[in-house]
User: Which sequence fits this backbone?
């Protein structure tokens, strides 16, 4: 957590969601799951469409609601960065970052959903759901079958 002080009276907290997942594969296979519409639909939500190239916008829908992500950066086998430009207020302006590195037989995914303004209850939900969906990436790449919405693990009533 980063604390930023302004005028010595007002304090803002910037909070992030962090995960580390190892996938038995190459970073190139994980990168493909993170940068193609078919790959994204195979692990996050079946209702995925748009332009997944750098500068493009990808729409992720969950029974009508969802998120619009602008693809900010893509470095093959190394990094993917999205900026949230549509969705719940808590997500707007945040960034989703996937850093990739190879460690022996594992592609390591260092995930960060950064820039949350405060740790609201919705963030608790999203932290767990990101973990669920990162395990879906792992399953998709390792077995060929992920668990995207609506086949994901239901964790609560949201």
Assistant:
């Amino acid at each position: 957590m980063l604390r930023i002080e302004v005028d010595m009276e007002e304090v803002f907290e910037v909070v992030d969601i962090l995960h580390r997942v190892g996938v038995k594969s190459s970073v190139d296979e994980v990168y493909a799951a993170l940068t193609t519409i078919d790959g994204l639909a195979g692990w996050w939500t079946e209702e995925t469409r748009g332009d997944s190239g750098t500068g493009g916008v990808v729409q992720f829908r969950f029974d009508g609601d969802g998120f619009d992500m602008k693809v900010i950066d893509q470095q093959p086998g190394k990094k993917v960065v999205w900026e949230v430009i549509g969705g719940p207020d808590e997500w707007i302006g945040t960034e989703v970052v996937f850093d990739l590195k190879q460690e022996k037989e594992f592609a390591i995914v260092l995930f960060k959903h950064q820039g949350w303004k405060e740790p609201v209850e919705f963030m608790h939900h999203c932290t767990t759901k990101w973990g669920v969906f990162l395990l879906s990436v792992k399953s998709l790449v390792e077995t060929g079958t992920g668990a995207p919405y609506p086949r994901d693990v239901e964790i609560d009533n949201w």
Q: What stands out?
A: The longest strand covers residues 10-24. Helices lie at 27-35, 37-41, 121-143. The CA atoms of residues 84 and 93 lie 5 Å apart.
